[in-house]
User: Fold these one by one.
Assistant:
Number 1:
Amino acid sequence: MFERFTNEARAAVVRAQEEARRLHHQVIGTEHLLLAILETGEGAGAQALRARGVDAADLRRRIVGIVDPPGDDLDSAALATLGIDLEEVRRVTEASFGPGALDARGRKPTRPGHIPFSKRAKKVLELSLREAVRLGHNHIGTGHVLLGLIREGEGLAPLVLTDAGVDLATLREDVTRLLSSEAA
Amino acid sequence: MSDGVQLAQEASSRDPAIGLRAVRALRELAERLEALQVGNARDQGWSWQEIAICLGVSRQAVHKKHGGSRRILGKER
């Protein structure tokens, strides 16, 4: 389904996986797509978000605050906010002391390598195609993916954007305007 | 600037909920590592005094904290 994606939009999809991994999340959700759009290149998506004052660090904090309520176990998401990669700490301690060396009790299985997209994130990617078709564009850029996020409307992405004080209807107009001027 | 450094600067900023949670996570991680290293040192025949010096605490403190659980595990008399 990525044939019509621009290089930038492809890079954003890859980046979404990196964002999920960095936060030690098990699936790629709309929130990771949103971060990726903001952090990838100078496409309509990133431009529109920046123009509304959206900040990646602020978004990450909001996401971690919602997704990862602190528990009793080692808090990989909180450690990640300090730049500490818990999986790496685990790896080096297990290399010296054997499997489970760092565990107090049971340990959550972590998923190495490939992280799957959530159903909603997949839906967003489909909707980005529909948005491109609707606007008469034959390519899908980060702006179309952002429109897809807004259209889907139910994921964590629109929630954190709204929390951050962004009006989605206005953002939608901004992106559409940028895309039209790009296409002209 | 690496992503890690950037994240650290982001997270050590002003939101107490995130900052305090990070401190808690760090403390829990340090506790786990300490238990692991103290156990390893005892297994290798280090005295409580030697371990205490390396950790920068008193012998009584380190023995009180780790001696009990090692006795329960049958690793100390």
Note: Residues 3-72 of chain B form one domain.
Number 2:
Amino acid sequence: MILQMGWRNIWRNKRRTAVILTAVIIGVWSMIFLGALMRGFSDRMRQNGIATLTGHLQVHRAGFRNDPVIENRITSPAAVLDALEILPEGARWTPRIRVNAVAGNARHSAGITLVGIDPGREAAVSFIGDAVRQGRYLQQEDPLGIVVGEAFVRKFETRLGNKLVLMSQDANGEIASRAFRIVGIFDAELESTEKQFGFVHIAASRKMLGVGDDICEVAVLLPSHRQVEAAAESLRQRLPEDTYTVETWKDLLPIVRETLEIYDVFIFIWFLAVFIAMGFGLVNTILMAVFERIREFGLMRSLGMLPRLVVVEVLAESFFLLVLGMAAGNLIGLLSVWALSVNGIDLSAFSAGMEFAGMSRIIFPVLVARDIFTANATVFLMGLAVSLYPAVKAARINPVEAMARP
Amino acid sequence: MKSIRNIVECRDVTKIYDQGRVKVTALKAVSLEIERGGFIAVAGPSGSGKTTLLNIFGGLDVPDQGTVSVDGELLNDMSQSALAKLRLHKVGFVFQSYNLIPVLSAIENVEFCMLLQGVPAAERRRRARSMLDDVGLEDKYDRRPAELSGGQQQRVAVARAIVSNPVMVLADEPTANLDSKTGEGLLQLMREMNEDKGVTFIFSTHDKMVMDYARRLVVLRDGAVAEDAQR
Amino acid sequence: MAWRNIWRNPRRSVLTMSAVAFATLLLVFMLSWQFGSYATMINASVKIHTGHLQVQAKGYQEDRDIRKVVPDPEAVGKILSRTETVASYTFRAEAFSLVSSKDRTYGVLVTGIDPEKEAAVSTLKDMIRKGRYLADDDANQALVGILLAENLKVSPGDELVVLGQGRDGSIAATVLTVKGIFSSGQDEFDRSVVHIPLHDFQEIFAMRGAVHAAVVICTDLETISQAKKEVSEALGNLEKGRSLAVLGWKELVPGLLQAIKMDLIVGFIFYLILIVVVAFSILNTFLMAIFERKREFGVMMAVGTTPGRLTRVLIYESAAMTLLGSAVGILVGSLLTAYFQVHGIMIPGTEEIAREFGLPERIYPQLSLLSVSVGAGVVLLITLITAAYPALKVRRLKPLEALTAV
């Protein structure tokens, strides 16, 4: 019956209840919705990072990451490829040659990252498999073809079918150079990606650099990003630490990792700020409800109701306000996320800014169960906590004085 | 406990209200004994200390000097929660107005004290029904206080006061806000309850008609007992 | 009268004012923080490399073609010296080249600088970590970025071979000695740039006295647009001046501007939602202040107070409350900001991001008239609108009804 009283009491002043419910609903909605957008931002950033040749894990020869030259290549790839057997079911991997090179034609020259790939395997791991917009992707036998980015083609004032000369240091420390023909042009989310990478067949790059069957790195994509740490650990067990390094995307993309961490903190700070904003209203509303019913509380205390139960009754009012507001806020939040998840939010207007921050142009909201839980738990628990103040006030009402009121 | 004949015993009870600059003496060394099964009116003009006396009897207020015991228990040193328990289990209250909890229906108001006492729901409902029937509100179970007349509200209050089997019912000017006919009806009801169920009633009033119903009349004047007569 | 009414229910008024103060405080602090970090970002970018303005050949910014030059730097220099809003300037020329050490080769942007003038424009001179800065009469000496030096495995005194293409298409080659190693804190810059004296550059790359850019620092951020206008006009009168363009930092680093814009807009969306939640939180207080005083208003109206007057009293009352809340918020917010303005804020776990943008570890919020007034202004505006709603409602009150209301 105490709960019933709480429920009925909140409807005694419908306008007041509607106003505070609106505050709670907007608050909860903004937590869910903006939280999902922020997650969308950061998720997209992570996915872009992983798809842009990073994968979930990479294996290199120790030292390659600090000094990425052909000298630091993996000279016995068979050992590494054997170790990959222990990867979980559904994991895909691809070997690569990756070196810094200078690309040049008659008018321009610039530094690029030359990536030698196994066309079939690569397509299953990174973005390049379905990023070619003009021409074609590399074929199983492709000794001369190179695939470059759209922005690169513009900068170099070149086009499909033209020649491009690549220069890099070979296995003997000499400058190796080789001419390729542009067979495909790819698009990427970020212009910097389009300018940075040039893809050739792994066999062509091996021949150019004189490295036999060696490779520079292996990139692995796992069925789920939750398996990353475990997979990395088991690979580390198999591969001697002084010869090989196994790194996850978190090691390979420290900026993305830091951004994700900042978002975690920021989302919580946002929840807290919104809560404080509506907390003042909640306390005030309940305080009003208590003070206009002083006689009533006096009566209940006179009849022998323990202060503890008075606290419960007032908390019940706050409980119902919170639960109603949270239910509606969550519902509207989920609906608005759902509505946006079809087309996403187009941020092309800020594309250069997004590029600057390494993000994509279109953002899709992403719901994370933990965020929804945190949002609701924050509102609910802290909402009840701050309601203790008016509740205790109500419990302390002196029955004699209260009943003597006009 | 039943062996104690007097339900309330107070000795030299003095109560002074400190209202800033003025100190108001509400009760001056009042000594009274209230017998079990009585139907007692405490009369006197307003400001004579009637309400204060009833509040002290009911454990709502504590005297500054003197002792009060209810049903053999000394109230003076009780904690707030002990007093609350005493009110809940031993005292029924009927106030002048605002007697009922507005968000509860008539039957729920009657059940309220039993709920606090921890009476099981089914029994609660059964007792509340029969009590409402006894006070003549058998067709008004689910009305909210706002949908009841003043007289009906007071009847619900009487029902609530009696239903939890208290040792006494304290009624502070129960008829003050009622017209004389309705007020008389309420008094008759209280009298019936007193006679049929043996419930002790102590009520305050300054209405001659109400005094006439009492079997014992205590008259207070300026915080002291001026007259105490069986009738 | 309004003032006294506020204190009839001090607890409620304090809570309402606290809500306003909280929102104001948060906005003052956050906006100061944002503006502070923008200033830091702009300064970092400007000071490391870009300058406030650059005079370049039209189109050079887009394709970095070595042939798009400023042919007569002296003439441009004269104009810049004449312009009062220009604090300092220097000339630069740059070309992408292959730079080899004993056992490494990397593609690098070789930049020719005027050592003395450069020191007045960028912080390059203060960035030297090993060795020494260039002197005016140095020949075939180079400053190398710290990450590039690691990659090339060179330290001061070691030799570098430069191989590139001159302005006329000829092969440009020379041998340089590393004189100093600089660290800007911005990874990209430290990994890809080598500085050499401008006269050496012009000789090696067959520049025939030309440069690629005149880099300008203005007297302060506010005078940039005026300087840009004056310099553009003066260039128009120059022979061949029409082939030159004056670019501001916004055009030189468009990503930075858009990132700032996006950050501001996202920030404003968050702030707005927060303020709306606050508004609904405090709306109940304003409503209550009226409904519990219906009788009082009834009396006032019965004795001849016009509804307009009532509205005014109520508005004064609410305005006094919100103004007081804002004042407290501004005060506390400013104190908090001022504290951090001195001590700086370090967010742990953001080192990589800071290095990406060349930011210092600590961000110093910047208290300014703008950051204080914008935040407080928006909060005040919205809360006043909130307060106006019930105050206008009172006009519809009828004296008789109000008198009989309980």
Note: Chain C has two domains: 2-45+256-404, 72-239.
Number 3:
Amino acid sequence: MLQFLVRRLIGACVIIFLIGAFTFFLFYTIPQDFAELSCGRNCTPQNIEVIRENLGLDKPITSQFWEFMAGIVNGRDFSQGHCSAPCLGVSFDTGEFVWDSILDRFPLTLSLTLGGLVIFLFLGLGSGLLAAWKRGTVVDKAVSGASIVLSSFQIYFLGPIVLGIFVYQSGIMDNPRYEPFTENPIAWMVGMIIPWCVMATIFTAQYTRMARSTMIEQLQEEHVRTARAKGMKQRYVFFRYAWRGSLIPIVTILGVDLSALLSGAVVTEFTFDLAGIGRLAVDSSLTKDLPVTMGVMLFGAFFILILNIVVDLAYAYIDPRVRLS
Amino acid sequence: MTTSTRTEGTPAPTGPESFFSVRDLRVRFSTEDGIVKAVDGLSFDVERGRTLGIVGESGSGKSVTNLTVLGLHNPKTTTVDGEIVLDGKELVTATEKELEKLRGNKVAMIFQDPLTALSPYYTVGRQIAEPYMKHTGASKKEARARAIEMLTKVGIPQPRSRVDDYPHQFSGGMRQRAMIAMALVCDPDLLIADEPTTALDVTVQAQILDLLKDLQQEFGSAIVFITHDLGVISDMADDLLVMYAGRAVERGSAAEVLRSPRHPYTWGLLSSMPRLGGSLDQPLSPIPGSPPSMLTPPSGCPFHPRCAFSGEVGGDRCATVRPPLGEGRAAACHLTAQQKQTIFIDKIQPRLR
Amino acid sequence: MSDELTLPAQQGPASASPEVLLKVQGLTKHFPVYGGFPIKRKVGAVQAVDDVDLTVGAGESVGLVGESGCGKSTTGRLITRLLEPTGGKIEYAGRDISHASRRQLAPVRSEIQMIFQDPYSSLNPRQTVGTIIKSPMEVNGIDPKGGRDKKVRELLELVGLNPEHFNRFPHEFSGGQRQRIGVARALALNPKLIVADEPVSALDVSIQAQVVNLLQKVQQELGIAFLFIAHDLAVVRHFSQRVAVMYLGKVVEVGDRVSIYSRPRHPYTHALLSAVPEVSTVDEPEDRERIRLAGDVPSPIMPPSGCRFRTRCWKAQDKCANEVPPLVRLEGNHEGHLTACHFPEEPTTAARDEDIVLDPALTALEDPGKD
């Protein structure tokens, strides 16, 4: 198991490196002087030279790349001061350290993700299991029908409707906003509740359908039938035998969804006017702020890879065939 | 179909109650294409300590029958009529709770493919111990000891350590042994084995079949043994039921049915099967055509479209009247006893040399 | 449909085959196993086929029997060159094809055809029967007299299907009929050798016989040689004049069918034959030996040294672990009957004075007094 972990981590580092290289060189195919971009309005050629030197833009691309990569591990020095590891460079646009901007935005993204996750896992898996248990009954039909309707909704459609009803018309709620959890947990919750619910609605619908269909599939497995033939109670068979097998596809999709959410829920953030990682990514690519774009990409890649490893570990936990091979 | 006589399924005459008896069992599935009459008026009996072999090809309804015994069919799409009586208890009308108490306890099942029939997620020991704890109220520790005892009995080497292995760590033959251990853990009175050796290699099959026979001697259970393999059935069964298209077409002791078969389908099965001891000059005589669709089973005798001897029955009785299966040693065929005798001796027996 | 094919079975041992069509020498296939840390590398090999010698004469039917993992299917795939051999030589009609490239193989490909086990997955469900049977001709650019369609109809008729069914799809046919389609496809190129890999195992007993008879008709009327791979010993005996028994990648015994089935010498052949359940259609008590091995076939990744059967053999001695027994003609064996065993059995399958029961569970249950 340790071997497996080490091997996967080494692999993850290699992939992060490749993603970094790919983005970096791709960006340099844009015919644009980044120093000029970074310089702003009252720009003099001297200023540009200074900036160019500070950002290391005077050096060849490859050595810039190595400097960037080395900075992630060791940190770098800029005229603004020491950028400690993991240093993702300096924003061309604001002059801030990229890592600091990401750290600034991340709590919101994390809050959004975790809050939504709790809701959609609980409701989605719960209603999916209920539908599978009551297969073919009115309950199943109602749940399945609702989940099909809801999963065809989109956040940018549902979001404004919910905002319209609860914020603009009735005034029951305030506009969503982010309050740090550490400062005021209640305000944190109140501020996030609408985005959570809207986001979770769509995910709930997907997870309901998935949980239902994998459970129904599992219930037809021969080993599930064997468990019933042994006289085990239906509920026991349902939760011990069928559920166990359903976990694999659920965990797989969950890993994909989580890594996507953690690297920025762009649509949700824009719909509710929240400034998270997704927003940062979009803004930076619009302003051609290479270091920020790179930083966000690598940050996202990091989550994708980590969650991939977590999912593999989960497989090993769930399925002894994976663990023991 | 409505014209068919229902003589076959009339309730058993009063007599000594069998340990396990099925009377006029009818199983229908509703599918998208229509109603499948998977089992259509089936009756049989099994005594304690005896083995009933049920032989038939795919779609003959042999496996379905035995899933319904334990109520393991899908109740939403399946209707079951008739009687299934185990030791005086009616099972068709039994509640799920009552069935749960029987399953794995009084009646146990062994399935065809032990790889898919055992859960990959739990250890072999746990899967054997589960029903024992449930039915006897034994503690975890006792159940584990019992699991080890059962593994020893079925010949798993180093049972003390292998009890904690997962099914995928076992070889095919060992998995089926573990399955047998699981089925026998509560000392069942009736064991239903559905093609238990079909997925196994021939040398392993021989071991498992002998093991089942030896264990039956020790446990004294009745066995219902379902297979498509006449060789296996000849080895295992005391009594034999040949099924075709959801019905029993021939019944008798295994020796009687295999040595002097009376139904054209049984003749066909025997003469289409090559045997190790068979003559090399003797060609195989297959049954023409294919088994019927159970959505639209043939009228009258379900075998008549493939039967070479329906011409010897007067008129179109084979196509219109369903031949009844009598009590005891019997074949559901319109041919007269004399005709059956003559045809078998003149035409069939020479093929079986 | 003409299902009532009844043909006389083949007679006794084949008269010394006039012409060798296929000659396999030292055929070996190892599938690498990867593992290790931190960089994965080859840590071992599944010795699926190891040093197999085999010949098939023109028009002859050779059976290849054995249990799962014995390498019989791999051997078939090597001969049809669906797999690349690790070692050894495959000679077809005097031409070495063991490592021939696609292009070099082209002329031979049409002469060696394969029939597969599963008639459900080996036919493309989106193609009509006509297209399926025609495609080998198209691929190989063969234009028979009267056109390809006419040939397809002839083939359908030959295998006992209605030529009118030309435009139907595989799902409209039953399992047995699909296997007939598979046979028709194999025949489309007028092959000289057909490798049939478990062609009847997936079929019901009554249908099996139809297909076996069809294959026999094909073999006899068209003079096509067969390598018939199956686990069912009775079917192989019925269909093949010569039979090779494989165990864990090696041929342990080969010979004409009478020798193999009535005068086997290798303990494994004895065990295999004694394990086949037979229908007793006569009242006489059976005179068959009873041999019950212990456990399952070992893994071909680390096969036992020396004789591979020794771990399950009741006659094994030190010599068996140290020396690989050569496949040779033993004293008293018929011509061409070769056995790879240091301590061969008597050439009979009659019941022994004492059964050989190696399975510990069976010994314990049958003979509680013993140990």
Note: The longest strand of chain C covers residues 41-57.
